[in-house]
Amino acid sequence: MIIEFTCNGEMKRADVPADMRAIDLIRDVLGLTGTKEGCGRGECGACTILLDGKPVSSCLLYAPKLNGRKVQTIEGITEKDGKLSPIQEAFIEEGAVQCGFCTPGMILSSKALLEKNPYPSDEEIEEAISGNICRCTGYTKIIKAIKSVSDKMDMGN
Amino acid sequence: MRYLFPITIKEALEYVSSEKDSKFIAGGTDLINQISDGFITSQMLIDLSQIEKLKKIERTEEEFKIGAAVTLEDIASSKFLPQCLIQGAKSIGSPQIRNLGTIGGNICNASPCGDILTPIIVLGGKLVLISSYGKREISAEDFFIGPKKTIITGNEILTEIVFKKLFLSERNSSFRKIGKRNGQTISQVNVAIWVKKRGKDNEVEDIRVAVGSVAPIPLRLEKVEIFLKGRTIDQEILKDAMKVIDEQIKPISDVRASENYRRMVIGSLFQDAFKEIYK
User: Fold this and answer.
1) How many CB pairs under 8 A join A and B?
2) CB distance B99–A60 less than 8 Å?
3) Per-domain residue ranges of chain B
4) Which tens digit of pLDDT belongs to each residue from B185-209?
5) Looking at residue B150, what is its pLDDT?
6) In CATH, what number does B172-277 get?
7) d(CA A141, CA A144)
């Protein structure tokens, strides 16, 4: 089945089985391996992508669901010149990355939050990342990193 | 396998009658796992999520209606829907799940733990089912016949859930759930309550109560409703109500909780939900 969609701003076209999962299309066909498979059941968030700006589990989508939609993966959030996005910088700055496996999903969930709600409370941050499981960090530094992006935006006003 | 996107309900009905081994899909958050686990196979998936008519939330003079393909996130972030519905939707899964999963999917998946089911029941929701033979409307509480079993037939589509305006204007409802975790957890027990208050004191003019995960289906507790109707509520009455609840539920011990735990906790959840309405 032919699937056509925008991925990280570029038009992509793929001919894949109708029951190929979006995560496999993204990783194996497009070669974008930043999106990780943790559980394959939509319970860990490691496979989070942004679909029309909203975080979804790519292991729970069959490829046809991407047709005509806007997809953003972790590879797509760096700036055009390769510079890291403010969220990525903050994660590094705050030490919010250990093994890094949850990080792409965490960052995309954070990005979606800050775009909808630039000044979230701690509770709102926790809710926004409640679908992203981290086994390493205990979440504190992740939340701090997200908060710091928001604070920087606030100071900039 | 074929994956199709009908644009109209009519088209969807044509597809389903063209292939016996076909299944409807909307968000797919339950179905995809069931396929991965081998519980379900299908030669044709008919994706209903692009049918505009199924994605609307509408208010009329007499009613408000929610399209079956409205996502749980859209319900959770609503500014006007009844509180128990919002709370129920918000408690399901994670943001990633709620951005895909739909109210219709939670209904048709018919888990006795379904967190939007008990709110729909206490709000008197009517489910509209359409087939090529016509339309029928079923009360939500009559829709479920067993764990993951409903009265929907293979050629029917759940198109919308209709509620009387009363349940929007008398917006006294509450939903409580307990699971093993705070987030992304399946209910060990859940409770939904809708109340029509009378006067300034804690008097109940009308009440509807439904509970989840304590019976093979999400259960309306009519005996408790009869017990509480017309009463002025105090701690004693709530305690007595809990006894009535205990008689009506049939919890089992399973991977998520023991029967005893469920019996213990349901009373507290009920009181908690009640206190939110009668602050």
Assistant:
1) 80
2) no
3) 1-47, 172-277
4) 999 999 999 999 988 777 999 999 9
5) 98
6) 3.30.390.50
7) 5
Q: What is the residue extent of each domain of chain A?
A: 2-76, 86-156
Q: Please write the tens of the pLDDT for every residue from A123-145.
A: 999 999 999 999 999 999 999 99
Residues sharing a CB contact under 8 Å with residue A112, sequence separation 6 or more, in sequence order: A50, A53, A54, A55, A128, B95
pTM of this prediction? 0.96
- CA atoms of A74 and A60, how far apart (whole Å): 18
Asked if the B1-47 domain carries CATH number 3.30.1490, the reply is no
* Residue B273, CA distances (Å) to B175, B202, B223, B264, B270 in order: 6, 14, 18, 15, 5
Fold entry, domain A86-156: DNA polymerase; domain 1 (1.10.150)
| CB contacts, 8 Å: B35 with chain A | 19
Tokens 């926790």, residue?
A: A126
Measured from the Cβ of residue B275, the count of other Cβ atoms closer than 10 Å reads 12
Contact B183 A131 (CB under 8 A): yes
A40–B contact, CB cutoff 8 A: yes
Complex ipTM: 0.96
The predicted-structure confidence for B262-274, as pLDDT tens digits, reads as follows 999 999 999 999 9
Task: Tell the CATH topology of A2-76.
Answer: Ubiquitin-like (UB roll) (3.10.20)
pLDDT of residue A122: 96
Show pLDDT as tens, one digit a residue, over chain A (157 residues): 999 999 999 999 999 999 999 999 999 999 999 999 999 999 999 999 999 999 999 999 999 999 999 999 999 999 888 899 999 999 999 999 999 999 999 999 999 999 999 999 999 999 999 999 999 999 999 999 999 999 988 776 5
Low-confidence residues in chain B, pLDDT < 70: none
Cα distance between residue B71 and residue B103, in whole Å: 6
Q: Which of residues 34-63 of B touch A (CB under 8 A)?
A: 35-36, 45, 47, 49
